[in-house]
Amino acid sequence: MLLIRGLVKRYGARTILDGLSLAVQAGSTVAIVGESGAGKSTLLNLIAGLEEPDEGRIELAGSELSALDDDARTLVRRRSIGFVFQAFHIVPHLTAFENTVLPLVLLGIDASERAARAQRMLQDVGLGDRADAMPRELSGGELQRVAIARALVHRPSLVLADEPTGNLDPDTAYSVLALLAANARAGDAATIVVTHSEAAARHADRVLRLAHGQLADGREAATARAR
Ligand SMILES: Nc1ncnc2c1ncn2[C@@H]1O[C@H](COP(=O)(O)OP(=O)(O)OP(=O)(O)O)[C@@H](O)[C@H]1O
Ligand SMILES: [Mg+2]
User: Fold this and answer.
1) Distance of CA 85 from the midpoint of ligand 2 (Å)
2) Which residues are near ligand 1 (CB < 6 Å)?
3) What pLDDT tens digit does each residue of the chain (227 aa) get?
4) What is the CA(158)–ligand 2 centre distance, in A?
5) CA-based, 20 to 30 A from 46: which of 1, 40, 54, 202?
6) Among all ligands shown, which has an atom nearest to the Cα of 45?
7) 43 C-alpha to center of ligand 2: Å?
8) Cα separation of 224 and 91, whole Å?
9) CATH number at residue 112
Protein backbone atom coordinates (compact mmCIF):
# COMPACT_ATOMS: atom_id res chain seq x y z
CA MET A 1 0.00 0.00 0.00
CA LEU A 2 1.00 3.59 -0.68
CA LEU A 3 0.88 6.20 2.09
CA ILE A 4 1.56 9.91 1.52
CA ARG A 5 1.55 12.49 4.29
CA GLY A 6 2.01 16.26 4.23
CA LEU A 7 3.59 16.39 0.79
CA VAL A 8 4.85 19.84 -0.22
CA LYS A 9 6.44 20.69 -3.59
CA ARG A 10 7.48 24.18 -4.64
CA TYR A 11 8.94 25.45 -7.90
CA GLY A 12 10.60 28.75 -6.99
CA ALA A 13 8.01 30.89 -5.25
CA ARG A 14 5.10 28.75 -6.51
CA THR A 15 3.69 26.07 -4.22
CA ILE A 16 2.37 23.26 -6.42
CA LEU A 17 1.55 20.66 -3.74
CA ASP A 18 0.58 22.08 -0.37
CA GLY A 19 0.52 19.45 2.37
CA LEU A 20 -1.14 16.73 0.30
CA SER A 21 -2.05 13.38 1.88
CA LEU A 22 -3.24 10.17 0.23
CA ALA A 23 -3.54 6.45 1.05
CA VAL A 24 -4.03 3.84 -1.68
CA GLN A 25 -4.67 0.24 -0.61
CA ALA A 26 -3.15 -2.69 -2.46
CA GLY A 27 -5.61 -3.85 -5.13
CA SER A 28 -7.46 -0.56 -5.38
CA THR A 29 -7.51 2.09 -8.09
CA VAL A 30 -7.65 5.84 -7.48
CA ALA A 31 -8.38 8.25 -10.33
CA ILE A 32 -7.00 11.78 -10.02
CA VAL A 33 -8.61 14.59 -11.98
CA GLY A 34 -7.80 18.29 -12.03
CA GLU A 35 -7.11 21.23 -14.30
CA SER A 36 -4.02 21.49 -16.46
CA GLY A 37 -1.17 22.76 -14.30
CA ALA A 38 -2.80 21.57 -11.05
CA GLY A 39 0.23 19.37 -10.25
CA LYS A 40 -0.98 15.89 -11.24
CA SER A 41 2.20 14.90 -13.13
CA THR A 42 4.32 16.48 -10.39
CA LEU A 43 2.58 14.27 -7.82
CA LEU A 44 3.23 11.08 -9.84
CA ASN A 45 6.87 12.07 -10.41
CA LEU A 46 7.35 12.54 -6.67
CA ILE A 47 5.77 9.17 -5.91
CA ALA A 48 8.00 7.51 -8.51
CA GLY A 49 11.04 9.14 -6.91
CA LEU A 50 11.85 11.06 -10.09
CA GLU A 51 11.67 14.32 -8.15
CA GLU A 52 12.32 15.27 -4.52
CA PRO A 53 9.60 16.71 -2.29
CA ASP A 54 10.31 19.82 -0.20
CA GLU A 55 8.41 18.32 2.74
CA GLY A 56 6.39 15.25 3.57
CA ARG A 57 6.65 11.47 3.52
CA ILE A 58 5.97 8.86 0.86
CA GLU A 59 5.83 5.26 2.06
CA LEU A 60 5.53 2.25 -0.21
CA ALA A 61 4.84 -1.08 1.51
CA GLY A 62 6.07 0.38 4.79
CA SER A 63 9.36 1.81 3.55
CA GLU A 64 9.94 5.54 3.38
CA LEU A 65 11.19 6.47 -0.11
CA SER A 66 13.06 9.66 0.83
CA ALA A 67 15.09 7.71 3.42
CA LEU A 68 16.59 5.55 0.63
CA ASP A 69 19.71 6.51 -1.29
CA ASP A 70 19.59 6.88 -5.09
CA ASP A 71 20.60 3.26 -5.83
CA ALA A 72 18.01 1.82 -3.45
CA ARG A 73 15.34 4.10 -4.90
CA THR A 74 16.21 2.98 -8.42
CA LEU A 75 15.79 -0.64 -7.32
CA VAL A 76 12.38 0.06 -5.79
CA ARG A 77 11.35 1.83 -8.99
CA ARG A 78 12.46 -1.08 -11.17
CA ARG A 79 10.93 -3.80 -9.05
CA SER A 80 7.83 -2.29 -7.55
CA ILE A 81 6.64 0.56 -9.75
CA GLY A 82 5.09 0.58 -13.22
CA PHE A 83 4.88 4.03 -14.80
CA VAL A 84 2.87 5.05 -17.87
CA PHE A 85 4.27 8.47 -18.79
CA GLN A 86 2.17 11.27 -20.25
CA ALA A 87 4.52 11.23 -23.27
CA PHE A 88 4.90 7.41 -23.54
CA HIS A 89 8.76 7.23 -23.59
CA ILE A 90 8.68 4.30 -26.01
CA VAL A 91 12.18 3.48 -27.32
CA PRO A 92 11.95 4.27 -31.07
CA HIS A 93 14.44 1.68 -32.39
CA LEU A 94 12.94 -1.27 -30.47
CA THR A 95 9.85 -3.26 -31.54
CA ALA A 96 6.62 -3.33 -29.52
CA PHE A 97 7.74 -6.65 -28.03
CA GLU A 98 11.25 -5.40 -27.21
CA ASN A 99 9.82 -2.30 -25.51
CA THR A 100 7.42 -4.44 -23.49
CA VAL A 101 10.03 -6.98 -22.37
CA LEU A 102 12.52 -4.30 -21.25
CA PRO A 103 11.56 -4.18 -17.54
CA LEU A 104 11.97 -7.97 -17.33
CA VAL A 105 15.42 -7.75 -18.95
CA LEU A 106 16.46 -5.13 -16.36
CA LEU A 107 15.26 -7.47 -13.60
CA GLY A 108 17.24 -10.39 -15.00
CA ILE A 109 14.21 -12.66 -15.67
CA ASP A 110 15.28 -15.58 -17.88
CA ALA A 111 14.72 -15.32 -21.62
CA SER A 112 11.95 -17.85 -22.18
CA GLU A 113 9.87 -16.73 -19.22
CA ARG A 114 10.20 -13.05 -20.07
CA ALA A 115 9.25 -13.68 -23.71
CA ALA A 116 6.10 -15.54 -22.67
CA ARG A 117 5.11 -12.85 -20.19
CA ALA A 118 5.72 -9.97 -22.62
CA GLN A 119 3.77 -11.70 -25.39
CA ARG A 120 0.82 -12.41 -23.05
CA MET A 121 0.89 -8.79 -21.86
CA LEU A 122 0.75 -7.52 -25.46
CA GLN A 123 -2.21 -9.81 -26.05
CA ASP A 124 -3.96 -8.36 -22.98
CA VAL A 125 -3.71 -4.84 -24.43
CA GLY A 126 -4.94 -6.04 -27.84
CA LEU A 127 -1.58 -5.92 -29.62
CA GLY A 128 -0.77 -9.64 -29.79
CA ASP A 129 -0.41 -9.49 -33.56
CA ARG A 130 1.72 -6.28 -33.57
CA ALA A 131 4.58 -7.55 -31.39
CA ASP A 132 7.17 -7.12 -34.16
CA ALA A 133 6.01 -3.67 -35.26
CA MET A 134 8.37 -0.72 -34.86
CA PRO A 135 6.99 2.31 -32.95
CA ARG A 136 6.87 4.40 -36.16
CA GLU A 137 4.46 1.82 -37.61
CA LEU A 138 2.05 2.13 -34.66
CA SER A 139 -0.76 4.64 -34.10
CA GLY A 140 -0.83 6.96 -31.08
CA GLY A 141 -3.32 4.70 -29.31
CA GLU A 142 -1.29 1.59 -30.10
CA LEU A 143 1.87 3.25 -28.72
CA GLN A 144 -0.03 4.13 -25.59
CA ARG A 145 -1.02 0.49 -25.19
CA VAL A 146 2.63 -0.59 -25.59
CA ALA A 147 3.47 1.85 -22.79
CA ILE A 148 0.78 0.24 -20.62
CA ALA A 149 2.01 -3.29 -21.42
CA ARG A 150 5.54 -2.24 -20.44
CA ALA A 151 4.29 -0.68 -17.17
CA LEU A 152 2.44 -3.84 -16.08
CA VAL A 153 4.66 -6.65 -17.40
CA HIS A 154 6.82 -6.97 -14.26
CA ARG A 155 3.73 -7.11 -12.00
CA PRO A 156 4.58 -3.99 -9.99
CA SER A 157 2.93 -3.39 -6.61
CA LEU A 158 2.38 0.27 -7.52
CA VAL A 159 1.14 1.43 -10.93
CA LEU A 160 1.26 5.14 -11.85
CA ALA A 161 -0.46 6.15 -15.08
CA ASP A 162 -0.38 9.75 -16.30
CA GLU A 163 -3.26 10.27 -18.75
CA PRO A 164 -2.92 6.77 -20.25
CA THR A 165 -6.04 7.30 -22.37
CA GLY A 166 -5.19 10.72 -23.78
CA ASN A 167 -4.85 9.52 -27.38
CA LEU A 168 -7.48 6.78 -27.35
CA ASP A 169 -11.01 6.70 -28.71
CA PRO A 170 -13.67 6.27 -25.99
CA ASP A 171 -14.04 2.49 -26.49
CA THR A 172 -10.29 1.83 -26.32
CA ALA A 173 -9.97 4.26 -23.39
CA TYR A 174 -12.68 2.30 -21.58
CA SER A 175 -10.91 -1.02 -22.12
CA VAL A 176 -7.50 0.40 -21.07
CA LEU A 177 -8.95 1.71 -17.80
CA ALA A 178 -10.77 -1.58 -17.25
CA LEU A 179 -7.45 -3.36 -17.81
CA LEU A 180 -5.62 -1.15 -15.29
CA ALA A 181 -8.36 -1.68 -12.67
CA ALA A 182 -8.46 -5.45 -13.31
CA ASN A 183 -4.67 -5.59 -13.08
CA ALA A 184 -4.87 -3.73 -9.75
CA ARG A 185 -7.31 -6.27 -8.34
CA ALA A 186 -5.68 -9.38 -9.78
CA GLY A 187 -2.10 -8.37 -8.95
CA ASP A 188 -2.89 -6.59 -5.68
CA ALA A 189 -1.33 -3.45 -7.11
CA ALA A 190 -2.14 0.01 -5.77
CA THR A 191 -2.98 2.01 -8.90
CA ILE A 192 -3.17 5.75 -9.52
CA VAL A 193 -4.55 6.98 -12.83
CA VAL A 194 -4.48 10.64 -13.83
CA THR A 195 -7.22 11.07 -16.39
CA HIS A 196 -9.74 13.42 -17.95
CA SER A 197 -11.81 10.47 -19.12
CA GLU A 198 -15.32 10.00 -17.75
CA ALA A 199 -14.76 6.25 -17.99
CA ALA A 200 -12.23 6.52 -15.15
CA ALA A 201 -15.00 7.48 -12.76
CA ARG A 202 -16.67 4.15 -13.42
CA HIS A 203 -13.57 1.94 -13.11
CA ALA A 204 -11.80 3.57 -10.19
CA ASP A 205 -12.65 2.77 -6.59
CA ARG A 206 -12.20 6.46 -5.77
CA VAL A 207 -12.03 9.68 -7.78
CA LEU A 208 -10.04 12.55 -6.25
CA ARG A 209 -9.68 16.11 -7.51
CA LEU A 210 -6.33 17.90 -7.22
CA ALA A 211 -6.79 21.64 -6.71
CA HIS A 212 -4.88 24.26 -4.72
CA GLY A 213 -2.21 21.68 -3.94
CA GLN A 214 -4.60 19.33 -2.13
CA LEU A 215 -6.76 16.32 -2.93
CA ALA A 216 -10.52 16.31 -2.33
CA ASP A 217 -13.34 13.93 -3.22
CA GLY A 218 -13.92 14.31 -6.95
CA ARG A 219 -16.59 11.65 -7.46
CA GLU A 220 -19.49 14.09 -7.29
CA ALA A 221 -18.09 16.37 -9.96
CA ALA A 222 -17.16 13.42 -12.17
CA THR A 223 -20.53 11.69 -11.99
CA ALA A 224 -22.37 14.99 -12.41
CA ARG A 225 -20.47 15.49 -15.66
CA ALA A 226 -21.19 11.94 -16.80
CA ARG A 227 -24.93 12.38 -16.35
N1 LIG B 1 10.56 21.55 -13.44
C2 LIG B 1 9.67 22.52 -13.25
N3 LIG B 1 10.06 23.79 -12.98
C4 LIG B 1 9.17 24.78 -12.77
N5 LIG B 1 7.83 24.63 -12.83
C6 LIG B 1 7.37 23.40 -13.11
C7 LIG B 1 8.26 22.29 -13.34
N8 LIG B 1 7.50 21.19 -13.59
C9 LIG B 1 6.21 21.60 -13.53
N10 LIG B 1 6.13 22.92 -13.24
C11 LIG B 1 4.89 23.70 -13.06
O12 LIG B 1 4.14 23.10 -12.02
C13 LIG B 1 2.75 23.14 -12.33
C14 LIG B 1 2.17 21.73 -12.27
O15 LIG B 1 2.67 21.00 -13.39
P16 LIG B 1 2.16 19.54 -13.71
O17 LIG B 1 2.92 19.08 -14.89
O18 LIG B 1 2.26 18.72 -12.48
O19 LIG B 1 0.63 19.80 -14.06
P20 LIG B 1 -0.50 18.75 -14.51
O21 LIG B 1 -1.59 18.82 -13.48
O22 LIG B 1 0.11 17.45 -14.77
O23 LIG B 1 -1.03 19.43 -15.86
P24 LIG B 1 -1.52 18.73 -17.25
O25 LIG B 1 -2.95 18.30 -17.01
O26 LIG B 1 -1.44 19.87 -18.22
O27 LIG B 1 -0.59 17.62 -17.57
C28 LIG B 1 2.63 23.80 -13.69
O29 LIG B 1 2.30 25.15 -13.51
C30 LIG B 1 4.02 23.65 -14.28
O31 LIG B 1 4.30 24.69 -15.17
MG1 LIG C 1 0.40 16.32 -16.50
Assistant:
1) 9
2) 11, 16, 34, 36-42, 86
3) 899 999 999 999 999 999 999 999 999 999 999 998 999 999 999 999 889 999 999 998 888 888 888 898 888 888 999 998 776 789 999 999 999 999 999 999 999 999 999 999 999 888 999 999 999 999 888 888 899 999 999 999 999 999 888 777 887 778 788 888 888 988 889 999 998 777 666 788 999 999 999 999 887 555 555 54
4) 19
5) 202
6) 1
7) 9
8) 39
9) 3.40.50.300
Which among 42, 41, 35 is positioned nearest to 10, based on CA atoms?
42
Phi (first) and psi of residue 126, to 5 degrees = 80, 20
What single-letter amino acid sits at 47? I
CB 161 within 8 A of CB 64: no
Pocket test for ligand 1, best of 10, 42, 47, 52 (most atoms within 8 A of CB): 42
What's the 43 CA to ligand 1 centre distance in angstroms? Answer: 10
Domain count of the fold of the chain: 1
Residue nearest to atom 8 of ligand 1 (CA): 42
Please report the atom of ligand 1 found closest to the CA of residue 34: 21
Nearest to 164 by CA among 187, 182, 141: 141
